[in-house]
Design goal:
By secondary structure, this protein is mainly α. 77% of the residues lie in helices and 0% in strands. Helix 8 runs antiparallel to helix 9.
Length: 203
C-alpha cells in the first residue's frame, strides 16, 4: 500500500509540472529511484496510474470542501475560504494537465466530469440555498443555474485556447471569475460582508 501511494505521489509531482503526455513510466521510475518493473507490479500502464491519481485528488478535494464548510460561520466566509484554498491548487497545476487528461485519458476525464456534476454542482447548490436563507445571497437567483454556471466558469478558466498561458496567469483568471460570481449573487448584506473579508472599508 505504501508503494502504491509513493508511485501515485511521484506521478503527481511530475504530471503537475510537465503535463501527463510528456511524462513516461521511465521518468516516474527514475524520479522515485525504483525500477519500472516495480511500478508495473501495481499499475499495468500509465493510464491506470492516471486514473488512480485522479481518484485520489478528487477525494482530497471533496474532503477539503467539507472541512472548509464545517469551519466557516456563513456562506460568504465559505466562498472566501474556498477561494484561498483554491489558490494553492491552481498555482501548482499546469494547464496542460487538463488538456492531456481530456485528450489522452478519457476514463479519468469522465471521473473528473462526473465529480464536477455530482459533487461540485450539488455542493454549490446547497451553499447558495443556505446563503439565501442567511440573507447573504439574492433570493431571486436560480441556484441550479448559478451552480452549473460557476462550475463551467472554472473549467473555462483552464481553457488555453480562450486564455493562452503566455498571455494570462491561470490563477488570476480564476480569481477574477470568483470575484465576479461572488459580487453578482450577493445581497447588500452579503456585499458588505464580502468587502469586510477583502479588507475593504465601506465608503
Amino acid at each position: 500500500m505504501v508503494q502504491i501511494e509513493r508511485i501515485i505521489q511521484g506521478g503527481e509531482e511530475l504530471f503537475l509540472t510537465a503535463g501527463i503526455k510528456s511524462v513516461t513510466m521511465d521518468d516516474i521510475a527514475k524520479h522515485l529511484g525504483m525500477s519500472k518493473k516495480t511500478i508495473y507490479q501495481f499499475f499495468k500502464d500509465k493510464n491506470e496510474l492516471v486514473i488512480a491519481l485522479v481518484n485520489k485528488k478528487l477525494k482530497e478535494d471533496e474532503d477539503q470542501m467539507s472541512d472548509i464548510i464545517s469551519r466557516s460561520n456563513n456562506v460568504i466566509e465559505e466562498m472566501i475560504n474556498m477561494l484561498k484554498c483554491s489558490e494553492e491548487i491552481f498555482s501548482r497545476i499546469n494547464p496542460i494537465v487538463i488538456h492531456d487528461l481530456q485528450k489522452y485519458h478519457p476514463e479519468a476525464w469522465k471521473q473528473f466530469q462526473d465529480f464536477k456534476s455530482d459533487v461540485l454542482v450539488h455542493t454549490l447548490e446547497e451553499l447558495l440555498t443556505k446563503g439565501i436563507k442567511q440573507g447573504y445571497i439574492r433570493p431571486d437567483i436560480d441556484v441550479k443555474i448559478m451552480a452549473r454556471m460557476r462550475v463551467c466558469q472554472v473549467e473555462m478558466g483552464f481553457n488555453t485556447s480562450i486564455f493562452p498561458v503566455a498571455e494570462f496567469n491561470t490563477w488570476t483568471v480564476q480569481q477574477q471569475f470568483q470575484e465576479h460570481f461572488n459580487f453578482g449573487i450577493c445581497t447588500l448584506k452579503g456585499y458588505k460582508l464580502l468587502n469586510q473579508f477583502k479588507n475593504i472599508k465601506d465608503e
